[in-house]
Amino acid sequence: MLTRVKKSLGLTEKAFYYLLAIVLAIFSLGPLCILIFNSLKSDSEIGVNPLGFPLNPQFSNFVTAWTQGDLGTTMRNSTIITVGTVLGIWVIAGMAAYALSHLDLPGRSVVMLYLIASFAIPFQLFLIPLYFLWSKIGLTDNLFGLILIYWGTGCSLPILLLRSYLISLPREYSDAARIDGANEFQVMVRVVLPLSYPSFLTVGLIAGFQAWNEFIYAVTFIQDNTLLPVTTSFLAFQQSFHRYWGLTNAAAVIIILPIIVLFLILQRRFIAGLASGGLRG
């Protein structure tokens, strides 16, 4: 009798977890499905049927959105910005995390406090001063100027994640390399970094997603239409008193498709690196 009760409770618990997983899946995938449905509708059909299946699919929305939004140019610019941002953050965050985790630096606690406190500072506070500074030194309308901003504003979390992962690595490997005569740079490049590539992949994906999706800095510091990133393409589907919602949704599907494909390919390593990089002391 007791065994039957335990089995019944186990089945009830499993049913609850499955139901919870289904609800969460609907909650997360529902907006994406609606986005795809609306990308195949005309504006009039979206007004009448905003949540249902497209009754008369408009596949031409994707062609029109690609042309009118100049997505070929903006996606090329965003690719340059994203790759440059990821490479720079790998170098900056990797060296900073190694120094904070493997070197006996004075004031490490102050640096850690600064990195954590930087999350609470809204970037709007220094947006205008930064614009005047960038204008003075000629970094507006410049992809490298935008990448430089992303390096400065996007390094805090990667440094913390990498540091927490590097702390967990066995010190025997780096100590053995030092005994063999390796200097700190050689220890970092030849010993520590090869052992920590999952965490670098994780912070690279996080930094890349942020750079690809960022809008405020891009629209503020880039005015040249040939240098605009992909998030600004949505401005092409808006007039004074009307927005073309079908084209907007079609452009959104095109823009998020590379991100979804990349995440699906690397999701296991991304989750493993994120789990192993929990913020340890």
From TrEMBL:
Residues 75-266 form the ABC transmembrane type-1 domain. Keywords: Cell membrane, Membrane, Transmembrane, Transmembrane helix, Transport. It is found in: Cell membrane. It is a multi-pass membrane protein. The gene is yurM. It comes from the Bacteria. PANTHER family: ABC TRANSPORTER PERMEASE PROTEIN MG189-RELATED-RELATED, SN-GLYCEROL-3-PHOSPHATE TRANSPORT SYSTEM PERMEASE PROTEIN UGPE. The chain crosses the membrane at residues 16-37, 80-100, 112-134, 146-166, 187-209, 244-266. This is Sugar ABC transporter permease. It comes from Dictyobacter formicarum. Belongs to the binding-protein-dependent transport system permease family. PROSITE patterns: ABC_TM1 (PS50928).
